[in-house]
Amino acid sequence: MAHAPSSAPAADATDLAPPITKHGVCNLCEAICGLTFQVQGEGPRARIVSIKGDDADPLSRGHICPKAVALKDLHEDPDRLRQPVRRVVENGVTRWEPIGWEQAFDLVVEGLVKVREQHGSNAVAVYQGNPNVHNWGNITHGHLFFSQLKTRARFSATSADQLPHHVVAYWLYGHQLALPIPDIDRTMCMLVLGGNPLASNGSLMTVPDVRARFKALKARGGKLIVVDPRRTETAAIADEHLAIDPGSDAAWLLSLVHTLFAEELTAPGALEPLLDQVKAVRDAVAPFSPEATAALTGIDAATTRRIVRELAAASTQGGGVVYGRMGVSTQAHGVVCQWAIQVINLLTGNVDREGGALLTSPALNLIQMKLMGPGHFDAWRSRVRGAPEFSGELPVSVMAEEMLTPGKGQIRALVTSAGNPVLSTPNGRQLDEALSKLDFMVSIDFYVNETTRHANLILPPTCFVEHDHYDLVFLHLAVRNVARYSEPVVERAPGALHDWEIYAELAQRYARRAWSLERGGARARLSGLLARALMKRLSPQRLLAIGLKRSGAAQRGVTMAKLRAHPEGIDLGPLKPSLGKALQARGKRIDLMPAAIRRELPLLVAPFTAGTPDSASSEGSRPALKLIGRREVRSNNSWMHNSERLVSGKARCTLWIHPDDAQRHALQDGHTVTLASRTGRIQVPVHITSDIRPGVVSLPHGWGHDRDGVRLRVASAHAGASINDLTDDRQTERISANAAFSAVPVWIEAA
What we know:
The chain is an alpha/beta fold. It folds into 3 domains: 85-161 and 367-559, Rossmann fold (3-Layer(aba) Sandwich), CATH 3.40.50; 180-362 and 586-598, Dimethylsulfoxide Reductase, domain 2; 616-730, Beta Barrel (Barwin-like endoglucanases), CATH 2.40.40.20. It is built from 26 helices and 32 strands. The chain starts with 19 loop residues before the first strand and ends with a strand.
């Protein structure tokens, strides 16, 4: 397969100018660590000499991980696309033909409008991947284009990751982004479930330099408790680790709520007058005593009761907090888990207080300025399975079936933006097949990866170090209030476009081309065209300047001039109580018993108290192992595997298995096994370790780069196997239909 010519900037051997220091950020993960770059030369041929942590950054405090250093690799990657390409198939051979931007825009609009004319607007789907919220140009301008498609077939990585968090925040606090953040720098007891901050640098909790923060927690006499089937990096430094049975977290959390009531340890504090349905919660959790759930969770009743008492005691000694992340969201009862976590924090008085969990106060507040809607749930359902939408998006678990199932509304075209759902959504092989049958597909991405290889056209934006950045989302989730604007580290190549420029141009051209398809009067359509023309002229930086003025950020010392003068960031101080003013819920009150939870809890009494988890399954006479995921600090989904420095060394895509299970299957360390599930089978080497619970196996996420047509040379040489060739699109969270990646039944076969 031919490769498109690369115009990657080359180092000039005669350039002996001394390097200059520039400030920037690493927006590869949620920690958004501040960095200093040594850059040599000027213009598009400038090269990055070194990358270090920024000691002056008020949030990351000089912290850096291997991913940040790999920003140089991504920028210089010869596999990265630097101009649009279209897929051409001749005599069964695929090649990628470089084309100009004008032709690319015309072909995209023509292809999408054709499908919409023939099959209706819902036949065109959108998938937005995880990196969309890491790049502010996607946030400021992406909606201009996507809203033009007028489709209900919208998907994103949210429902492969964190949807239960947002559903519960919407129900309890009135807004999907109203997520109380653990006050890790002041808490006295932190209970972590299904999260591994030492590997992730926090998730829905932006917390760089987390190891030092946990060390400080212990130094002030506090306690860290981790509940996870695996002895993670975070569990290894915790004061206590409980190896819970995968998929049973909701049962254990309900037993914590039960114990709070049974031992009269509830003390909501200042929020008590705002809490409704407290008695309804007490009655609903009555069956879930620690004794009743112990057989299911594997955590004995005495330990459960002790931890509740310790958490309640910490609430009187500076604060305590329960934090649950991906491991408890991506299972059958993820919404119940996240609801129970909020209820525990509320009933112990640890919401909206120092040392507990608080809302952030970013300089540009998307909630207060109404720049992000509060959300809505189950306003419509998917065509095939009837899965509920949330905030206009359907869960990714139904995306493939919406493409493969004939009938009115069948998805026939797809736009992907910075995502690789073949490797990141359940039953990836099924989605792989579905993508190959689409009438038209376009990807806004700078790689030909496992997903974009199916696209008719790929439109590559500039790389992370080539554009400016202000974090619009993760500053809402940070453990300290900061503001930070970063100029581009290096100049983009001539002819390269930023993501926001791509979206703005597509929006304007699509709107003109689809004029006859739009509903409403000519005046409304003309008004929309003028608005998009205006937005095309407004860069994200200009929108930020306008937003800061309108938000009153200047009163806190945040203006564009101040941000430019302090590229290391402006410290706005620790988190402060603010929920009373920020509460968006109806009547400014907190309903502790949403209708869906009221319906769900009675259905869980029998399975949770009888010790029979939903994932218990077997194939014939073979008892199932339970598959869970794994996060590593060198990896972030699938898009960090084309950097040699991140994938070199020991193999990381290995199946962790307990010695007892290895012995039962006659395995030795390094053996290659075939691992099978309902959806498929993969071959993977095993790593035998006592750092995982018996009956449980673990694979990392984002691997599987061995598919034909992938143009990622480093990643393909370290292909690994995709965990999502085993995860099940039919195994979903019961309320939201979020993907349930945890506790998937699998079986080991002879390789």
